[in-house]
User: What shape does this take?
Amino acid sequence: MRNRLERLRSLTTFNTWITIPGLLIIAAVVIGCACFPATTGAYLDAAKQWITTSWGWLFILGVSFFVIFLLVLCVSNLGSIRLGNDDEEPEYPFFSWIAMLFAAGMGIGLMYFGVAEPISHYAMPLHEGLSANAQAKTAMLNTFFHWGIHAWAIYGVLGLALAYFGFRYHVPLTVRSAFYPLLRDKVNGPIGIFIDVVALSCTIFGITTTLGYGSMQLASGFKEVGLISEAHMGTLICIIIVFMTCAILSAISGVSKGVRCLSEINLGLALFLMLFVLAVGPTIIILNDFTENLGAYLSNIIPLSFRTFAYDPQNEGWFTSWTVVYWAWWISWAPFVGMFIAKISRGRTVREFILGVLLVPTVFNLLWMTVFGNTAIWADQVNGGTLSAMASQTEALLFTFLNYLPFSKITSIMSIVIITLFFVTSADSGIFVINGIASSGGIKFPKWQSAFWGIVLAALAILLLYTGGLGALQATTMVMSLPFLVILIVLCFCLLKGLVIDEDYFGRGLSACTSYWTGSFWKDRLNSMVSHPDLNNAKQFIQETAVPAFEELSEEIKKYGVEAKVHYDVMGPLPRAEFVIEQPSMRNFIYGIQCERNAVSEFAANNDSMPQIDDNIIYIPMSYFADGRIGYPVRYMKKDELIIDVLRQYDRFTKLAADKKHLLFLYEPED
Assistant: This one.
């Protein structure tokens, strides 16, 4: 029996404490939808109604808080902290990083709502008695609000926390890891498990909602181009099964380069479609509209951010069915998008991350909504309100709108291709993120797990559509997003605490009394300075200075009951030595020296005033530490001076460890 259990564990990367509760939540919804569709639909609708009416204010206040929180971090000194070690360069060049953020702003949502939302707001304005132009301006203002900086602030908060704790503290990229400043050792206990279970469930239902939107719009597209005569429930089921099968095959094949290529092609097609609409539509009017839309959005962003219609109850239904639902949808997608932007942002500063994440995708979203939304409103005005009359058929509005532009058949087929690729690539990436959450931050998974999660997403989307269409999808997303909203709010305080401690820890200078420089050995130092720093000299320093210094200090410190170890490798390609004092339940004290291989300029190699440089490659013994601080050259030190330097670093270590708040950074995460 024991062998069978061990064999079972070897076949999966699941963390059972996370996966089983998540699956139980999903199973409860699936069973309810399959066996009691009417009753389940009624309960989901009641839950959505209770959350929107009782907790809508928390969604508004929480999301607005995220915007303020990120902007304050951006302009503060904390914005200079790097997402990685102090000397770490960004993993991707700036323009490549910007391009990937740009791609992250795309998705099925923009294709589905690019025409549908502006037309819906225009057809059913919040306030009566407005002129057609005033209705259009208000419609675009509300659309900008829902697709602007607030959505990306939600993604940015979680993405920044994942990137900071993952790359700075070297902990797994899971939501619970960001709560160590608050939970400490309890982060792996029931509360930490609950956080990851909510993140897992929230992500599954958020992706399921998006797949529901995509399948309904694809069905309308197929009908528009004549592939089907009517979009029945059977059609939606076939679409979900076929395209989720493609996503599963993509996920288990491991052809990440192919998926990336498809994503880039899809992004190009989407940009082409947007530019085509801009070119064949009323171009000058649209550009003027974008400028005014942007100005209206910026001038109204504060009242919009805190608008709950507390004094306008007749519009409360609009508020709960649009703004609150949108915020819940963005929150449910936060682990998905947050994980993506975190993984591509290693080496960036906090300030770069915030400005990039908040501005780049937001500007593109607003441009997209203007091109499609204002052009659709213009077409509606020119054609006697035909689009407004279809406001309730949101999934069909994009294709009906394209019929008013040239080459409608071609652009409709192109739209179907774009939506299809978004459908497959989003599901593929979603499977990977869900696998990661269920595996406590793992990055490699058995193929059957990817297939399993794909089947779960497909089954859930089909059953929820069967039960109550988009209403059921929105209701389940709403139920899961409320607890995750609370988690995100608390996470902000954990992130702030970590950043404040980080700044104090890395900004702490050495004590003046630890300075060891004197006038002694100046001739020896001069001799070292004019000697060529080649590999042999570096090995000699490690073997004849560093190792003896570490061993002598190790023997002496044992007299005081402190156990120290010395590790070294003199014959390796880059010789190194380490002095280690192991610490229980916290990061070990390590003073290491390793030879760094550096290239030098032709000017330095050929300069007679630099006799020590006679080659294009030099080897410098550099110190390094367990916490990732930047080391410094030590090749001019004598044995006694090196011992003193180790002691001054150990003195700093003990003083920082004595202060409780620094235990956060001295904590050694478990593998």
Notes: The longest strand covers residues 589-599. The mean pLDDT is 84.
